[in-house]
Design a protein that fits this description.
Length: 463
C-alpha cells in the first residue's frame, strides 16, 4: 500500500502513537474544534459586532480561509509526524528549503500556551456552573438574580481561581495519559450528546424566546455596522473555533493513519463545528431579546442567558446541570489540544516523559492564567491597549497570532512544499486538490493579510 509513496514520509511514525481509526481522528479534531469558542465566544462576539453581517463574514472565513488552512495543517502534520516545531523544520529541510520554518511551529506552541491560560479560566467557570445548576441556584431565577450570581462568582478571585485550578488539573491528567487512552476516550460521547442537548435547547428557545428577533439579529446583515475591526474579529473567530493557526490540528494530524482522506475529515469537522456555533446563537439570541438583555454584554453572556432559560424550564435543574457538564467536556477536549503541541515538543526535544511534560506545562500555564482570573475582579479596572489583561491576551492570540500562523502555514504548504508532496497527502492532483492549492497559495494568505492590514489601518481606503 505504501510502496508508491515517497520513501521518507511513508515510513515515518509518530513517537506518541496513532489514532485507532479515521473516526477517532475526526472525533478528536471535532472535540478540539467544538468548545467554548462555539458556545461561549461565538454568541458574545457576534453580539458585540452587530450580528448578521458579522455572522456572514464568519461563515465565509470558515469556508474560504478556514478549510484550506485546516487541510494544510493536517497534511503537514501527517507528513512530518512530529510536533509542529520539528515537523516544520523537517519538512522545510526535506524540500530543500530552510529549517527556519520551525519558528512558525514555535509561534503556534506559544499561542497554544497563551490561549490555554485564559481558556482554562473560562473552562473553570463552566465547571462551577455544573455545581451551581445542580444545587438549584438558578431555579426560578429572573435576569437580575442570574446576573447577580454571575457577578458574585467572577468577582471572587478565590472561587474563579479554584475552578481554574481544577480545570487545569483535568487537562494535565488527560494529556499525560497520551493519545489513545486519554484523548480519544473523551470525545466519543461528548460531541453527539452536546449536539442533542443543543437541539433540545433550540426547541425551548423557539417556544419561549423571541425567536424572530433572534433570527433577524443573526441572519439579516446590516453592513453599515461592519467595521474592519469586526471583520478581523470574524476571521479570528473562524480560526479560533476551528482550532487552526497554532498547530493543534497539525499535532493531531501527526497521529493520523496514512490512508485517511484529509479533505473528507476537514469537511466533517468544519460542518460539525459550524452547526454547533449557529445552534448556540439560535438558542441564545432569542433568550437575550425575550429577557431584555444586551447582546453586546460580553464574555458573561451565556452564563446569564442559559441559566435564565433553564431556571424557567420544567426539569431545568437537571437539564442545566447536564448542559454545563457537556460544555465542560467540550472545553476539556479543546484544552487538551491546546496543550498537545507544547507537550509533544517537550517530549521530543527535552527528553521528558509525557507525564512530566504535561505537569511542567500545566504549572506554567496555570500561573499565567492567574492574570486572567484577576482581570475579572481585583484587576478589572487595570486596562491598557485593548482593555483588561484578559482582553489583551484574547486579542493578541485570536486576532493576531492565529491569523498570522494561518498565513505562514498555508504559504508553507502551498509554496514551500512541492506539488508532489502535497498531492501525495491530499490523494492525487484532482479538482479538489487544485482548489485547495489556489486557496492555500493565494486566496487564504492574501485574504488574511488584507483584513489584517485593513484592521490596523495600514491599508488606505481606495474609495
Ligand atoms: N476551537 C476551540 C473552541 O472553539 C478552541 C481552540 C483554539 C482549541 C485553538 C485549540 C486550538 O473552543
Amino acid at each position: 500500500m505504501l510502496s508508491n509513496k515517497a520513501a521518507g514520509p511513508a515510513k515515518r511514525t509518530s513517537l506518541h502513537g496513532h489514532w485507532s481509526s479515521r473516526m477517532a481522528f475526526i472525533l478528536a479534531v471535532t472535540g478540539s474544534a467544538v468548545g467554548l469558542g462555539n458556545i461561549w465566544k461565538f454568541p458574545y462576539v457576534a453580539g458585540q459586532n452587530g450580528g448578521g453581517a458579522f455572522v456572514l463574514v464568519y461563515l465565509a472565513c470558515v469556508a474560504i480561509i478556514g478549510m484550506p488552512v485546516m487541510m494544510s495543517e493536517i497534511l503537514l502534520g501527517r507528513r512530518g509526524r512530529r510536533n509542529p516545531v520539528a515537523t516544520m523544520a523537517l519538512l522545510g529541510e526535506e524540500e530543500g528549503k530552510s529549517r527556519n520554518w520551525q519558528w512558525v511551529g514555535g509561534m503556534g506552541v506559544l499561542a497554544g500556551i497563551l490561549i490555554l491560560s485564559y481558556y482554562s479560566v473560562i473552562g473553570g467557570w463552566t465547571l462551577a456552573y455544573v455545581f451551581k445548576s445542580g444545587m438549584g441556584e438558578f431555579f426560578g431565577a429572573d435576569a437580575t438574580r442570574v446576573t447577580t450570581i454571575r457577578d458574585g462568582f467572577i468577582g471572587s478571585w478565590a472561587l474563579l481561581g479554584s475552578f481554574h485550578t481544577v480545570f487545569m488539573g483535568l487537562t494535565v491528567y488527560v494529556v499525560a495519559r497520551g493519545v489513545e487512552r486519554g484523548l480519544e476516550q473523551a470525545v466519543r460521547f461528548m460531541v453527539p450528546a452536546l449536539l442533542l442537548l443543543m437541539l433540545a435547547l433550540l426547541g425551548y428557545s423557539i417556544n419561549s424566546g423571541h425567536f424572530g428577533a433572534g433570527l433577524e439579529f443573526m441572519f439579516s446583515p446590516d453592513f453599515s455596522k461592519l467595521t474592519w475591526d469586526s471583520v478581523l474579529a470574524a476571521m479570528g473567530q473562524a480560526f479560533f473555533t476551528l482550532s487552526i493557526g497554532m498547530g493543534a490540528v497539525m499535532a493531531y494530524g501527526a497521529y493520523l493513519p496514512e490512508e485517511t482522506s484529509i479533505t473528507g475529515s476537514a469537511t466533517a469537522v468544519a460542518i460539525a463545528d459550524t452547526t454547533i456555533a449557529i445552534l448556540a446563537g439560535l438558542v441564545i439570541f432569542p433568550l437575550v431579546f425575550a429577557n431584555g438583555l444586551d447582546p453586546a454584554d460580553g464574555p458573561g453572556l451565556v452564563f446569564v442567558t442559559l441559566p435564565l432559560a433553564f431556571g424557567q424550564m420544567p426539569g431545568g435543574v437537571f437539564f442545566s446541570t447536564l448542559f454545563f457538564i457537556l460544555l465542560s467536556f467540550a472545553a476539556w477536549t479543546s484544552a487538551i489540544s491546546l496543550m498537545e503541541p507544547a507537550v509533544a515538543w517537550l517530549v521530543e526535544h527535552r527528553n521528558r516523559t509525557r507525564a512530566q511534560a504535561a505537569v511542567i506545562m500545566g504549572l506554567l500555564i496555570w500561573t499565567m492564567g492567574v492574570g486572567t482570573v484577576l482581570s475579572f475582579n481585583v484587576l478589572s479596572e487595570f486596562k491598557f491597549l485593548k482593555g483588561t489583561i484578559f482582553d489583551n491576551l484574547d486579542h493578541l492570540t485570536i486576532n493576531i497570532m492565529l491569523p498570522l500562523g494561518g498565513v505562514l502555514i498555508t504559504v508553507f504548504a502551498g509554496w514551500v512544499l512541492c506539488r508532489n508532496s502535497t498531492a501525495d497527502e491530499l490523494g492525487g492532483a484532482g479538482t479538489i486538490y487544485k482548489l485547495w492549492r489556489v486557496l492555500a497559495r493565494y486566496v487564504a494568505p492574501i485574504g488574511i493579510l488584507f483584513v489584517f492590514l485593513k484592521a490596523v489601518g495600514l491599508l488606505p481606503d481606495l474609495a
